[in-house]
Task: structure prediction
Amino acid sequence: MLFNSHIFIFAFLPFTWLIYFYLNKSRLTEMAKAFLLLASLFFYGWWNIKFLPIILLSILFNYAVGVSFANNKEKHKISDRLLLSVGIVFNVSLLAYFKYVDFFIENINNVLGSEIGQLHLILPLAISFFTFQQIAYLVDSYKRKTRETNFLNYAVFIAFFPQLIAGPIVHHQDMMPQFSSLKNKIVNYKNVILGLIIFSIGLFKKVVLADSFAIIANNGFSHADMLNFFQAWITSFSYTFQLYFDFSGYVDMAIGAALLFNIKLPLNFNSPYKAVNIQDFWRRWHITLSSFLRNYIYIPLGGNRRGKNAMYLNIIATFIIGGAWHGAGWTFIFWGLLHGLALVTYHIWSQLQFKMNIVVAQVATFLFVNITWVFFRAEEWHDAINILKSMFQVENLGLVFTPELLFILLGFVITSLFINSNQIISLLRSRNRINKHIILSFSLLFAVALIFIQNGSVFLYYEF
Result:
């Protein structure tokens, strides 16, 4: 089920909200939680019910390992490190089987000239997200940072529908106290209004902005070998803004939907195209993934504890893994490598104490990110190369004033000058009451978004 669908907005979300709070009001709190779990699994299974056993298997296995950590503390039957290793191997193997096995077979065939048949597996929805979330949970349990012995609590933590499909990646110790809080079991009308406002902003980003940029980007990438200089840059900029508005729109809708249930999801975007260096960009873009990569991959690899050269290798390795997490393809891996090399370059630059004008730094960072997104988007390696060649063939300008150019300028204005959703939430929370003019303004935004809804317009990160 899609956030940007009429059935979700007008049926699933209000029905789930009403029943959840009705059960809580009737002091049937465990039944309310069970209902929320069933609703979340229904939400997940709506996309393809064949994937439901996979997520249930994953939840059951990781819950059992987490409980084993808790029991092992008292009985010492098995090494905690062995338990953790088994848990991580299971999660990585499950992800690798569905996401990478055909990629491995294809490359083996290319190298050896063999003809091993591919399995043509369909990637289960959200497997990348719920796998990373559960790996984080196991590591936190191993370190005794969190503990969960109630299966219903754990299942809700993983399956809670607002963040299930594409994040943010959340931590058990941040989420479960919110579900246990008595005040969160009562309707909070300020949270309801805030949630609807942020959901409306996200919906507008997705169906009005992202889906409009998608038309331009898809047309450009489907004719990658025919673009002139101007068209190539329009194509790359269009995808840069499509990806931002699509994913940040999803996150806004997730945060908004969760707020209806008095659950506060973590910050995941903070105006990333305002970044003044590549490190700043990764502190603003997909923040929960960046935190996961840092805490559960970069630091365990050694971080910066073994000298500069080892640190640089750890940075590059972490970003290659991050690239591969996004997709089973050499373009994703190369995209990760480019960002890893850029971050290493930034560290060396900083150590040499070089300075750059802040405007120049912001433009340079944005252009680097825009260029590397070409590899992220291209379906084939040669498509990316063709577009990049056209972007730097200045003799073939083809410069004309088009409506697409105006739309690109709009993208620059919104991402560079406007306040973001997090700042809007902060401003609205600081008010004692949200006046009718604000509510009317965002109601209009929601109404416009409804006009643009195209059922079936999938979020980009559903593919990862």
